[in-house]
């Protein structure tokens, strides 16, 4: 690999940062120029990533030029470096590719907003941070970018900060993420103290040479690292922030809270998979079940949501759960595969939803939509393809990746497999519920009557993502990423035409159940929602429906819990402060000394005779001591 | 006889007479500026003293050298030169402060300057005293000038009261001193420190004779009066409160340091054999002095009175170094004094300036100082923080060295640990009242006067030097420690 190419990763990483800085400091007043710079930056990064990908293929590149010493305190040495392997190259392409489409779409979606420059600056900052996570070659660097992603996410969720729900959602997302990050940081510290390095390559060597290096703490370390993913990838029990994050602009939801940032947790798990996949660690089992639980819960909640973005948000949660479950089922390649296809079709769905919302003047309730097929044909067809892909209809991309996840679960644990199938049924059901209600039937509101297609700048990215959503499962993502050295074992390789039927051949049970799930989900959705004016489910399910709509009351429980603990801790602290510290220690000491002070002051009468007497008396006493002790 | 040994004293006396004479030809409106002339003269003398010191210690103070004059009554050694420079510097600051104070002295500001210089001459003699007779003369020179200085604001009843109290209680202490001196001379037949020392080493029984011990103790009492240490501490608050601020400052720094140098000479040069037996006595006196000063200061609302109690407490801290009975302890005493000089001068300079408009010394006059003059506020804050012993200021490092010296001796006598405990308790108590002053500066409710305070250039300079000194001694203590270690080499006690 030549030297010019070695500079590419640095450019890919820093061009978005430069863009963010230039916009913030120089071009803030010029909306068009700011947008142009930001879009240009990510497109450049995308093109460079493509060149890098073509030039290096499946190679893992190492070079001293890709790393520099950054911190060195005693034996604590941290470098600032770049990892180039199939895993990071795949993520580069997803982040910059999907990112480019969404940046361009944003210009159409956001261009009436007052603060367009700030929007694009934040978007560029996010891109920089996300690329930082992807390219990091060590834990500390990754953690820093991890936090930067949290910050840029905060900025973008709270983009319309003058709206209280947006400001609250931004805070909630940030704080919830910090909870997970705390565990992540503890995990990082433990890794360093136990293994003596933070560099991924070095760590993997250490683990390969001595699989028992983590000793009895392997599970603890694994779970602490997983905490980071629980926060960022919104897994149960920290999943509550993601639906609220939909308060941000829709392209942000598409880019950050569907396609890329939330995938960072899964990416991180894959990156450090060698630390999790240890014989004496139960971390992967826990990870698998947490993922499965999240997938199931989120799918159930999605069934009874009426806000188009929230349905997609819970769907994202559910799919992230599946990815995490795949990692937990000892098949990180499946997780990465699903991450990739999900990035394509979920970005597509979000942008489609954004297009609808845009056309309906920020109407998000699906029961006020309807009849959009004729009015918004491009959005309609692309959204349909996105729905098919997410539902896992063959031969769309979702089918292949979900099948891989299901077969991994089938191999690992039948319980996880059952969860996976149920989630698939629910996924198809809620997606077609959304599709039937929002796009078909009669317009259910004034704004739906007068909707019309979005401009080209928005529909072209939709078409681009549609293509990816269709072919995403067949272009060999799974085989490519399996070449990454962080994953153990080799992968079967089929000729391209065999990819179509590979799932059936390879894992017939999983594939058949997957198709069966789609059929069931679609049938039920069609029965209930084709042409429906109102939601029939609340009448049928009663309390369960209310619980689903109420998101199983997690937010309420958390607020109550937090409020109660908060109150209790505050009361305790107050009591300690008031009675022990202020009362006993401070006032007690203060009172005693003050008392002595005042008593002694009585001695200082100002009367000269008294003074002279005191002096002589004092001298007499001490003299007695000197002479007759 | 070598007159160059007393060149500093001669120069100061000539300067004092010169100021008196200059007064005759100076028009009334310029008399205040005589102070600046005197300060300039002192600055020259100070610079001269640096060269004189270099002459005495060609190799920088590593050797023990002592030159005697007047039949061994007068000695010039490391200790003497250290204290002489200390006193000259103190007087320099005090005269600048007095010039700032001049408008409040209705008659004879030139005499005020001149008296400060006379007291300085007494202090210079005291630092070189090697004989009880010279000690007595020097002490009286200091004390009698202070009788006048303290009552110099004759139009103020409080100033007169302070003068009278100082006069009578000072007379009592002098009586003790002379009485003790008579006992010591009567038993030993000598008043010379060097002779007394050799007499005690050849004849140890002498050190156990009750009359001799009583005499020494009376002498100790007479010197403790200068320090404001127990049992001679009661005068300090009243006198500090009533006297003109520059006189109080000089009392707090100069007079106290004179007591310290004489105590060092008497205890550790003349009668170290007896001093080493007085461990518990010194520990007890130090502890009581610390507690007394700090406890009384807590309810105090008058700034100058507060400084009076603070002065007692600081005398207690200084006695820690004596109680250690080592040269490390003594050098810590010197170090602490150096920091104390800058701190007290800064505090009193600010008090002089702030109380100019308001005829009150109450702590409330500081209200709004943070806005009226950030510079003065910073100087006073720094002084209080240093007195409270907070790093990185001089006060912290001084207390640290003193406590370290005491702890090092802990193995020989467990009472030392009690003393350390008492000292630390005292420091904690002192935080309360020192920070009360800082609170008054910055967080007082509705200050009624927010007019800015004019500060003359010499005062600004002297405050700047004080602040720099507090910081420098705290941040880079090593050179000063070397200086103090060289100064205490002459003491006849262990390291």
Name the structural class of chain B.
mainly alpha
Give the overall shape of chain B: globular
DSSP summary: helix tally of chain A: 27
Biggest interface pair, counts: A-B, 27 and 33 residues
Number of helices of chain B: 20
Please bin the fraction of helical residues of chain B.
Answer: over 70%
Report the end-to-end length of chain A measured between terminal Cα atoms.
93 Å
Topology:
The complex is a heterodimer of chains A (629) and B (495).
Chain A: H1 3-25, H2 31-56, E1 67-73, E2 76-81, H3 86-110, H4 116-135, H5 139-157, H6 164-195, H7 200-209, H8 218-232, H9 241-244, H10 250-259, H11 264-271, H12 273-276, H13 283-303, H14 308-328, H15 332-359, H16 377-391, H17 397-412, H18 414-439, H19 446-449, H20 456-471, H21 477-482, H22 502-506, H23 508-529, H24 537-541, H25 543-549, H26 554-603, H27 608-628
Antiparallel strand pairs in A: 1-2
Helix pairs in contact in A: 1-2, 1-4, 2-3, 2-4, 3-4, 3-10, 3-15, 3-20, 4-5, 5-6, 6-8, 8-11, 8-13, 10-15, 11-15, 13-14, 13-18, 14-15, 14-17, 14-18, 15-16, 15-17, 15-20, 16-18, 16-20, 17-18, 17-23, 18-23
Chain B: H1 7-25, H2 31-56, E1 66-69, E2 74-77, H3 78-101, H4 109-128, H5 132-150, H6 157-188, H7 193-202, H8 210-227, H9 235-242, H10 245-270, H11 272-275, H12 279-297, H13 303-324, H14 327-354, H15 369-372, H16 374-388, H17 394-408, H18 415-442, H19 457-475, H20 478-487
Antiparallel strand pairs in B: 1-2
Helix pairs in contact in B: 1-2, 1-4, 2-3, 3-4, 3-10, 3-14, 3-20, 4-5, 4-10, 5-6, 5-10, 6-8, 6-9, 7-10, 8-10, 9-10, 9-13, 10-13, 10-14, 12-13, 12-18, 13-14, 13-17, 13-18, 14-16, 14-17, 14-19, 14-20, 16-18, 16-19, 17-19
């Amino acid at each position: 690999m030549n030297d010019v190419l070695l500079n590419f990763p640095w450019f890919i990483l820093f061009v978005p940062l430069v863009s963010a800085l230039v916009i913030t400091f120089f071009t803030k007043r010029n909306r068009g120029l700011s947008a142009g710079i930001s879009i240009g930056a990510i497109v450049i990064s995308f093109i460079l990533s493509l060149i890098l990908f073509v030039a290096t293929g499946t190679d893992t590149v190492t070079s001293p030029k890709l790393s520099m010493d950054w911190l060195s305190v005693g034996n604590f040495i941290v470098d600032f470096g770049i990892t180039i392997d199939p895993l990071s190259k795949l993520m580069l392409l997803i982040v910059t590719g999907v990112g480019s489409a969404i940046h361009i779409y944003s210009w159409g979606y956001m261009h009436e907003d007052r603060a367009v420059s700030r929007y694009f600056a934040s978007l560029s900052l996010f891109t920089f941070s996300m690329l930082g996570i992807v390219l990091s070659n060590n834990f500390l660097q990754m953690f820093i970018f991890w936090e930067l992603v949290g910050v840029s996410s905060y900025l973008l969720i709270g983009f319309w900060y003058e709206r209280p729900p947006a400001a609250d959602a931004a805070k909630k997302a940030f704080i919830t993420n910090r909870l997970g990050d705390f565990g992540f940081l503890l995990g990082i510290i433990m890794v360093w103290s136990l293994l003596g390095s933070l560099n991924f390559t070095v760590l993997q060597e250490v683990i390969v040479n001595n699989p028992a290096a983590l000793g009895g703490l392997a599970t603890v370390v694994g779970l602490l690292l997983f905490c980071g993913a629980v926060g960022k990838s919104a897994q149960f029990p920290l999943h509550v922030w993601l639906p609220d994050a939909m308060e941000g602009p829709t392209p942000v939801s598409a880019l950050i809270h569907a396609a890329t940032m939330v995938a960072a947790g899964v990416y991180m798990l894959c990156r450090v998979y060698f630390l999790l996949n240890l014989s004496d660690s139960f971390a992967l089992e826990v990870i698998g079940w947490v993922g499965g639980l999240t997938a199931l819960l989120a799918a159930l909640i999605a069934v009874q949501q009426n806000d188009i973005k929230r349905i997609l948000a819970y769907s994202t949660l559910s799919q992230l759960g599946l990815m995490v479950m795949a990692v937990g089922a000892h098949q990180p390649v499946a997780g990465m595969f699903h991450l990739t296809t999900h990035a394509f079709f979920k970005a597509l769905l979000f942008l489609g939803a954004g297009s609808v919302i845009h056309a309906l003047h920020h109407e998000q309730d699906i029961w006020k939509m309807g009849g959009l097929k004729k009015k918004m044909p491009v959005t309609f067809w692309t959204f349909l393809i996105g729905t098919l892909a997410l539902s896992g209809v063959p031969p769309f991309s979702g089918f292949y990746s979900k099948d891989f996840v299901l077969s991994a679960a089938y191999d690992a644990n039948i319980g996880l497999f059952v969860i996976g199938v149920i989630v698939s049924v629910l996924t198809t059901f809620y997606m077609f519920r959304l599709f039937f209600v929002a796009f078909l039937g009669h317009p259910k509101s004034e704004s739906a009557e007068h909707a019309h297609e979005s401009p080209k700048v928005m529909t072209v990215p939709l078409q681009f993502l549609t293509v990816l959503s269709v072919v995403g499962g067949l272009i060999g993502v799974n085989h490519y990423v399996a070449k990454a050295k962080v994953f153990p074992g080799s992968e079967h390789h089929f000729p391209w035409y065999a990819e179509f039927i590979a799932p059936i051949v390879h894992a017939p049970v999983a594939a058949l159940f997957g198709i069966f799930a789609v059929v069931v989900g679609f049938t039920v959705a069609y029965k209930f929602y084709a042409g429906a004016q109102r939601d029939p489910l609340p009448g049928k399910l009663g309390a369960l429906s209310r619980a689903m709509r109420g998101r199983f009351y997690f937010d309420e429980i958390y607020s109550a819990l937090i409020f109660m603990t908060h109150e209790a801790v505050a009361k305790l602290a107050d009591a300690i402060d008031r009675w022990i510290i202020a009362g006993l220690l401070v006032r007690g000491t203060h009172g005693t000394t003050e008392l002595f002070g005042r008593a002694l002051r009585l001695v200082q009468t100002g009367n000269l005779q008294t003074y002279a007497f005191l002096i002589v008396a004092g001298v007499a006493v001490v003299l007695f001591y000197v002479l007759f002790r | 006889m070598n007159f160059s040994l007393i060149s500093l004293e001669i120069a100061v006396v000539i300067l004092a007479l010169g100021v008196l004479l200059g007064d005759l030809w100076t028009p009334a409106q310029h008399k205040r500026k005589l102070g600046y002339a005197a300060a300039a003269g002192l600055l020259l003398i100070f610079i001269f003293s640096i060269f004189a010191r270099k002459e005495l210690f060609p190799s920088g103070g590593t050797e023990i050298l002592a030159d005697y004059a007047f039949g061994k009554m007068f000695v010039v050694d490391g200790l003497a030169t250290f204290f002489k420079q200390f006193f000259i510097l103190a007087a320099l600051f005090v005269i600048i402060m007095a010039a700032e104070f001049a408008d409040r002295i209705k008659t004879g500001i030139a005499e005020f300057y001149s008296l400060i210089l006379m007291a300085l001459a007494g202090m210079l003699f005291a630092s070189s005293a090697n004989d009880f007779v010279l000690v007595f003369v020097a002490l009286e020179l200091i004390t009698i000038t202070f009788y006048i200085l303290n009552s110099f604001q004759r139009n103020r009843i409080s100033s007169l009261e302070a003068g009278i109290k100082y006069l009578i209680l000072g007379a009592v202490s002098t009586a003790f001193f002379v009485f003790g001196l008579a006992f010591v001379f009567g038993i030993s037949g000598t008043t010379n420190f060097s002779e007394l020392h050799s007499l005690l080493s050849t004849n140890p029984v002498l050190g156990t004779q009750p009359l001799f011990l009583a005499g020494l103790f009376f002498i100790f009492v007479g010197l403790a009066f200068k320090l404001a240490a127990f049992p001679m501490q009661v005068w300090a608050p009243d006198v500090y409160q009533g006297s003109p601020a520059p006189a109080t400052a000089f009392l707090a720094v100069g007079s106290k340091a004179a007591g310290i140098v004489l105590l060092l000479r008497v205890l550790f040069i003349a009668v170290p054999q007896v001093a080493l037996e007085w461990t518990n006595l010194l520990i007890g006196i130090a502890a009581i002095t610390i507690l007394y000063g700090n406890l009384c200061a807590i309810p105090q609302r008058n700034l100058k009175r507060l400084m009076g109690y603070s002065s007692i407490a600081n005398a207690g801290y200084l006695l820690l170094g004596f109680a250690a009975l080592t040269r490390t302890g003594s050098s810590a005493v010197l170090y602490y004094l150096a920091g104390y000089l800058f701190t007290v001068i800064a505090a009193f300079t600010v008090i002089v300036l702030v109380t100019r408009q308001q005829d009150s010394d109450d702590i409330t006059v500081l209200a709004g100082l943070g806005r009226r003059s950030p510079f003065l506020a910073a100087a006073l804050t720094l002084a209080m923080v240093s007195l409270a012993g907070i790093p990185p200021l001089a006060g912290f490092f001084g207390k640290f060295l003193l406590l370290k010296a005491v702890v090092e001796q802990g193995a020989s006598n467990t009472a030392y640990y009690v003393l350390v405990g008492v000292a630390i308790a005292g420091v904690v108590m002192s935080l309360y009242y020192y920070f009360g002053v800082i609170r008054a500066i910055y967080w007082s409710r509705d200050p009624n006067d927010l007019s800015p305070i004019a500060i003359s250039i010499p005062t600004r300079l002297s405050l700047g030097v004080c602040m720099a000194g507090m910081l420098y001694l705290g941040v880079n203590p090593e050179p000063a420690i070397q200086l103090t270690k060289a100064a205490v080499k002459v003491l006849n006690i262990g390291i």
